[in-house]
Amino acid sequence: MKSNNSGKVIIPVLLLLASTITLFPALYAFPAADDFCCAWLARQHGFYLGIDFAQTNGRWIATLFQHANVVLVENIALYRIVPLVAFVLILSSVLLFFKTYKINIPGIRNIYFSWFVTLMIFGNMPNISEMLFWYSGSSTYLLAVVFTLFSWSFLHPSQSNGIFYFIGIPLLLMSASFNEISMFVAPLGAWFLNYKTNSRILYASISVFAATLSIALISGGNHSRMAFFKDSFSLRYAVTAFTAQTLRFAFIFLFSLPLVWLFIAGAISGKIAEKKKFFKRFLIPLIPSVIAIGLPIAATGILGQHRTINYAWTIFVILIIIQNKDILKQPVINFKKLFPLLLFALFISPVISAITEDMFRGKFAEFSRIMQENRIKDATGPDSSTKEFSRELIPASLENIYPVRGWNSKDNLCPDLYYGAIKK
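Structure (tokenized):
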């Protein structure tokens, strides 16, 4: 009895500790790059950011959320609360999705498993900074995951016709309108998960995809962007880069999760009741990553950013669990014994390990001091040279957001535009 009671205490305590470490960098997050550009556009043109940004591309739902930058760039405390809200939203969408699709884990509560999966997603994410600690990235890609999982849950055949038509389909339409990757993945996933039991899902998915694709195609910004990258496109490079990146991330995705090793062992043990083929178990979940890699290369001729891979990674984790839920239900899988090992694997995951190391090295405090100095200089009269510093000074969990030597010019241009407009 004492052992069972201690387990009930230790598991949530460890999950809470891992969550605290994962969210720790939020205490040192600052607005950057597109955050300032979106705030500047909103100040210039009002709600929905005006014609200059609203018609840049088909990301009309993300554009609505970007308007919050007007408040966030001037309220650092509020900006740092956003990652916590995003984390709770992801956890809630994962919990509802697993409950809807009957991921019943024997031996532990479903909320613990959903909590663990959420931490596993962030702990092994290719680049957590662009997904969780940078509002412009999280509002375009992380919220897309949240809306996608909620829409897939409400489109499940167990829901009533009213929920299907008045909640599920609108949510699916919004999910597909966050970015170009979700435009394909959200409707495709909705169809794949439910096509055997719901005849209406095909028409709903096609309609949503057609609507979002039409918006993207008529958006003037997409045409100008493709024209800008036209000269850099090379078919040979595109094929080579696509193949290399697909194989690279397929390997990373399939061999970086402790659960995948569990699924592989279960699939080859011969003790499972349902004999799914390898393709259905392990390759179908990789399709979002193929889309996330292929679309940027096809559209621009260059490799995509990690934020698109972050989105594909999150969907991969969800789908790999769904495709192997029969293994999770087998008596041979003793979660009471395995869960402590899974928690240990969580704490040695790349992101949580890196955050812990940077905490002990004091990198967050030093980084905060430098960024605060630059922020003060921005407000009094920005000088681009003062906002560039060595990448080694940036904590690993906050990389690729803030201005460093040789990085994106928008890191300096956007604050200059924003603070310049305020002074006027």
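The radius of gyration is 22 Å. The longest helix spans residues 76-100.
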